[in-house]
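Record filed here:
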Amino acid sequence: MRLQLPIVLGGLAVLLAPWAAIRGDAPPPAARGLPPLVDDPSLPALPTRSPRNANYTIQARLDPDQHTLQGSEVLEWRNTSGTALSTFPFHLYWNAFRNNLSTSARGEGRRAARSLDQKEKERGYGYTEVRSIRLVDGTETDLTPSIKYVSPDDNNPDDRTVMQVSTPSPVPPGATVRFKIDWTSHVPHGDVGRAGWVHDYFFIVQWFPKIGVWWKGAWNAHQFHPWTEFFADYGVYDVRLTLPKRGFVVGATGRLQEKTDGADGAETWRFMQEDVHDFAWTASPRYREKKARFDDPGYPPVEIRLLYQPEHEHLADRYLEATKISLRSYGAWSAPYPYPQITVIDPAWSSASGGMEYPTLFTGGASLWAPRALQSPEGVTIHECGHQFWYGLVGNNEFEEAWLDEGFNSYHDEKAAALALGPIGWGRRYFGLATPGRGTRGGWPVVAPGVWIGRGEGELSGLRRSGETDVMARPGWQYRNAEAYGLNSYGKPALSIQTLENLVGDETMTRILRRYARRFRFAHPTSEDFIATVNEVTGRDYRWYFDQTWFSSDRCDYAVSVKTEKARTLEGYGDAGPDGVPFLTSPRAVPPEDKKGGVWDSEVTVRRLGGVRMPVEVMVAFSDGRTIDESWDGQYRWTMFKYRGPAKLVRAIVDPRGKLAIDVNPANNDWVDEDGWSRRASLKWSARWMFWLQNLLEMHMLVG
């Protein structure tokens, strides 16, 4: 009999699955409009072009059968350092896949976990081998003999992701030099990293020798680590891609300039883009194409080009609409997208290239069954398109301060999706397929009708679970593990920026972000630059806030407790009589008029359980409908508010307006009299109940 409940519930879930999936296609409730674009003449003028100090002309030929690239590039580089330089580092990112001793492979343990036979091992590896590098200045000086590999982050002698060359004489400040580089690459399989191939799908990113960035008085060229991303200077890209004539559809950074047929049966696509810091491309004969135009009033027009998998045709319009949502909202909150085009890629199902950003191109990701209520592919599309603003146009150092793009973007994508799409539905997927090294993918979606989850719940859960593991302001490869990287690059900064908005107000926050985005367009800002912008716009010093959130691993956790009782009457010895002896009194009889209510004494204790000190508001409510608002600076470990009156205290809330988005346990912020009901406290128990039910169902599925 005890198995009947899981059997019934499991059967009910299966029966409801098709209906729930269809029901999930209904538009979510409470969708609202997006903020209008506002032009503020007090803001800094937008730069019309980048410094263009790293310009690439590239020719590459792909052999899709051998999975190889033959490449040649000319890098025109201008010395903006203010000092003469004679050593130059170049990123060779694909050497992260060269062998099992690279820093990236050691960090992931990828090969041992994913590869079972020799063929599988061989197809997973990839590399970039520089055949020659020459300095071109009227004559050509061969720099190939000076090549050496350096590992500035961990001194790993087996890592070849950073190559360094030396010139015979220093390049003076302000001078421009040209490097001509020929290389061969083996494309890794697409399930081992962001780049690679899967069948006839090719996604080619971080694929050419790329010079480091002279930054803060030194070269900044970090190795490829398991979960960190990238950093580069802005320039102009002129790229020719040659592939065999097999019906390939090609998408890339920039706009297609021309397509030509070669005498050898090959086709060449030429793409160009100015004022970007990277170039990515993809090719597959399976791609289907759909275009749309974003031309809202006040925004520069943008052509949206979507390349999608045939099985996802029913999701094409949702991809395009989500891209428009992102362009519209991010443009209003920072500054409009300046390029005339953007390319959206729906990646092949078994590749690891989904959910990534590159200049004027990004990848989404979708399942065959995608109820609208779950906001997929909308969520990932809004996020990755949003990176065109935070990473693309404002080019922070992703190696060292990933939160400046991932955190800002996560904060913004949640706002954009909430305004345009409403809340996210609650659901799970069943019967997914296990893939090597990629976990379970796909599956049939079951959406709970009428159940919606709050945004930021996942980030808050991670902060509660492991927020004290690392300080957020830390280079990405130095976090304890991938979970810590994700929390401190995405979740914690997003919650901290939302909290900052709650403290300064949304209008002030918009002014902060607009000023920051305009001032540092086509530049490389740091956390200190953002903090300075906050202080400038608000006219106040918020260093105290960032010291506790970005530069500390302390938790923010405030809690409230209440003691309330009928006021006591005197019992015991009272005043002294004429003889100097105190009277012994008996309990006073309660007057008839006080039996219904009486006088109540209440104590509200607010505690700071974590290390983060924030000013907080406290709201108390009484049975007669009266409310009192209190405030506390939050500096000491606790404070107490006392009340006496005819009405009973029935509720007390610390942070009643939810300003502290980083508070790890909102459930203990709310106390309610036992005759009442607390939404915040009930969330904790509701979540536990759902967790128990979920595990009960899954256990039933395992035992048959």
